[in-house]
Specification:
single chain, 13 helices, 6-stranded mixed β-sheet, 280 residues, alpha/beta
Length: 280
């Protein structure tokens, strides 16, 4: 079996701004109007498309709130500030709509959606019946979860699949060293700057020569060693969240009766028809 793990927060952002580009086109009848559940419908359509193409076991990770334990470690770590209200208002409806559609959802509070993806990938990969784990997100920090050709990262928008060899080709290091690489070069999306004077090429060279940051000779980072280790802690995804005991929990068995009211609320009757067709 193949386990599909989806970054629900990323998908919500992607569909929200995809719709925004469409509705803000000059001459559009709904120009400048954000549909209340537009991005939610988009994510549900993406999940259904995956099921229609043969996916049987699916889990979606979401950020129930943006802040996590990492905000206590680094004051400038990403927060919910600046997220548009029309987008933020769709976070919780997405979780509820997915659950009523019969999809397993992990709404994260203390941890992040990325931690849930890492934990789910770890749990699923321990099951010998699992042939492959596909993590659907372009986020570079998820590259640390890739293992050989069995746990891979998929960017659905760009239609790229990255196994361990592809991660090394792109970043210059093997998947386990991705947190160290990000610690050195920084991650603007997450709000930490990395170590001044160290770019991606130099970082990869150092990591391939010495291994993890903890193994660097003292003169390499000097007084910035503790800062680099802090950034590594921010970049390291947690893989110990007890999300499920058996992968069979992730099997999609159709929408629940409660999905009908969500379909009506979202004005998206086609979603119900697609679910019904899949169950025939």
């Amino acid at each position: 079996m193949i386990i599909h793990l989806i970054d629900g927060t990323y998908e919500l952002f992607r569909h929200f701004y995809g719709l925004r580009r469409f509705t803000h086109v000059k001459g559009s009848a709904s120009r400048g109007v954000d549909r209340p559940y537009g991005a939610v419908v988009g994510v549900l359509q993406t999940v259904l498309q995956l099921i229609e193409s043969g996916a049987t076991h699916i889990g979606v990770a979401t950020d129930h709130v943006i802040e996590s334990f990492r905000n206590r470690l680094w004051a400038d770590y990403k927060t919910g500030a600046g997220i548009e209200r029309a987008l933020l208002a769709q976070f919780h409806p997405l979780e509820e709509a997915l659950a009523t559609m019969g999809v397993v959802v992990w709404p994260m509070i203390e941890l992040e959606a990325d931690d849930a993806l890492a934990s789910a990938a770890h749990l699923a990969s321990k099951d010998k019946k699992v042939e492959k784990v596909a993590i659907w997100t372009p986020d570079k920090d998820l590259g640390q979860c890739v293992r050989g050709t069995r746990v891979v990262q998929i960017d659905g928008r760009r239609k790229t699949i990255r196994d361990a060899a592809a991660i090394r080709e792109k970043f210059g290091v093997d998947p386990p060293l991705i947190p160290d690489l990000l610690a050195l070069v920084g991650d603007a999306a997450d709000g930490y700057p990395g170590i001044a004077g160290i770019g991606p090429r130099t970082a990869a060279e150092l990591l391939n020569r010495y291994g993890q940051i903890e193994k660097f000779p003292s003169n390499i980072l000097g007084k910035q060693r503790d800062l680099a280790l802090l950034f590594k802690k921010l970049a390291t995804l947690r893989s110990d969240a007890p999300l499920f005991k058996k992968v069979e929990t992730l099997r999609w068995r159709g929408a629940t009766p409660a999905f009908a009211s969500w379909v009506e609320k979202m004005k998206a009757p086609q979603l119900m028809k697609r679910c019904q067709n899949l169950m025939r």
